[in-house]
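dumping the sequnces here before i forget
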Amino acid sequence: MKNVDLQIDARWIATVEDGTVLEYNSVVIDGGVICDICPTAQARLSYQPTRLHSLPNGLLTPGFINLHNHCAMTLMRGVGTDLALMDWLNDAIWPMENAHVDHDMVALGARWSMAEMLSTGTTTFSDQYFYPEAVAAQAIEMGMRCQLATPIIDFPTAWAKDPAEGFQKTVALHDKYKSHPKVHVALGPHAPYTISDATFNQCRTLADQLNLRIQCHIQETQGEVDEAIEKTGQRPIARLEALGLLGPDFQAVHVVALNDQDIETLARYNVSAVTCPDSNMKLASGFARTRDLWQAGVNLCIGTDGAASNNDQDLLSEARSATLAAKGSSGDATALNLQQTLQMMTLNGARALGLEDQIGSIKVGKQADLVAFDLSDPFIQPLADPLSALFYTQRAQVDQVWIDGQLKVDQGRIAGLDIDELVNAVKHQRKSMEPQ
Amino acid sequence: MKNVDLQIDARWIATVEDGTVLEYNSVVIDGGVICDICPTAQARLSYQPTRLHSLPNGLLTPGFINLHNHCAMTLMRGVGTDLALMDWLNDAIWPMENAHVDHDMVALGARWSMAEMLSTGTTTFSDQYFYPEAVAAQAIEMGMRCQLATPIIDFPTAWAKDPAEGFQKTVALHDKYKSHPKVHVALGPHAPYTISDATFNQCRTLADQLNLRIQCHIQETQGEVDEAIEKTGQRPIARLEALGLLGPDFQAVHVVALNDQDIETLARYNVSAVTCPDSNMKLASGFARTRDLWQAGVNLCIGTDGAASNNDQDLLSEARSATLAAKGSSGDATALNLQQTLQMMTLNGARALGLEDQIGSIKVGKQADLVAFDLSDPFIQPLADPLSALFYTQRAQVDQVWIDGQLKVDQGRIAGLDIDELVNAVKHQRKSMEPQ
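..and the predicted 3d for all of it:
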């Protein structure tokens, strides 16, 4: 009998490693790392865990990876209903941001986003917003893994007066966290329509020097593509290719308005694509060609986008939208099947972040970032298939979340967080942001 | 002070009558009927209710109307994941139905569906399945309103050996329930590809004689339309127009593969259209042109379809899909706005059923079919707009449901129903249906 920290016995385990769901197996964890996965009967004979956790009606999955978010925008939940992207930005979001974004607002909004993400099974996220240093501090306090894509844009913001200051602050942030096990700094040039060639070139240079990832909104609408062709003679993806921006460290977010050549280019450069289906539908941007991206071999990931265009931070609900939208928009009922959907929100996200050796699947040697879902809700029954229950019924409850084998959520409650105090602060802050 | 049965004081009331949300108003009910809607301060001075119900963080809406379901298919929840419509029918659903559909199976499955519908805010539904007499008995026991569209099809089924027997049983059912306040018998010819001209003609004749509604699956896929043109030289809607089937008593379900002429025809005949977005996405049928149908003046309604292609019976989740899919597929962020979305699932459903004088909105003189949602969940906050919270956050909890002013659901529990006993019966039945 070997002493270990934690053993989780589960009715079902979706490891994401081999496309099957294990039944009546156990995950054994020591020192925050998965050290064995074996039938529960065998685990009981082999291990003496300090903590034993049993999921008789539960499904264990890897922690979810939300690859695109503007966390602090939880404070703008529900702002600008039934508006198109550019009206929503110009008339609703940007005026509110210009008036109210500061370090403390970002810290509070990011904390609020992290609370919702954690309690719905997300253990790793990428953020792209002002004051990333505020988000880093909150993530460390909450114990979440994150990529912070610093906001680079060719006009003055509350955080940086120009791209040069943005780059300088990015370098400082990177220096501060380069040895941190959970905080990863990246570059977040906003979008091809707000970034000059010179600024993009500086992003590439800095990314190569410091080994940073680059996350950028790309071809979110057909209007963006049409306008780019008119202004530059090129589609944005072709322009980025010509500039040498594309590569396995590049995360292209939204990618709704793609032609076949765009998809071929993304695949050829091993770019990661990040779909945000709820946001793309809500803002009437359209449907990303997720089936075609997957078939072309592009590493397809998923994000919630900010709460103002969603309006939630729940990646499971986002994935349900993604699998349904993939089938509905491609006319292929096998598009983005449920194993692929789960891979998109776990292992593929880890690959995009360069963390596939550490997280993204339930595998011996990886960190124990895990989510336990309870599938005993009456209206999940009869249960034919745990993944079908997970994605389609919307009644799977997150019971536990572990990061590095540490229990962060139990029975839906976040360890060490006073949710009532936090929600009151959020309501107070929002009230101060309403137009007078 | 007037004595009344029930007064509900609500933070918000979406009446559906005028496109606004009332704040701090009360709905006053006597004899099962809404007798007043007024500011709460005024109601407190005017009425002495036997029961007073207060919703300090609640939104009151009309009971939802699920206009297309195959209720008993809750027993087939999760059967046939990631399959296209015809494979799903031929390889997964029809073999199971052929082997297992009988009166008792339908009674149990329908009861299970009604439990889920009631607890998620649906007070009225339409069913189209074998053994409608079994569904009628369950609906009466559960106290729900329903339309039973009897299954008419040009091949032998467990319920009827041919359409003639189907019509005969329809007449018998109609005779039994013609004076029942809650059970409405209709005709349910399956689809143009399974119904001959002669059978359609008989449907029209019988519908006219007995004042029955007709519900039919119409143009669910482009393949169905292409095949119809090849076989008959006509699109199905054109064929039905020529046969004289179309009219305000006709409910066209799915209507995914529509051209402009089809939409114009549906509008001209005042046909009701019923969209089932989750089913249409899951089976890769595509997206109904809901924005164009609405703009053309077609009475747009919504249904969950059966649980096997969804996999839930939750009309609020279905409506979320509908509003997102409308925007995403039309490229118009104002498509199916949230007030229209609520109207689609309430008043428009009532119109399709010919019950708009009785239900579908919160209006003096109508029956008190009402749903109370609790909007106090932390992650709904900050709350900008109660309808945005209702449709987009997916965290609005059904607290109470009333039908005719009678409390059917309280704190999520269905009055008089032993849910554990029922779920055990459901699991047992499903086990007996699995392929050996």
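The longest strand of chain B covers residues 47-62.
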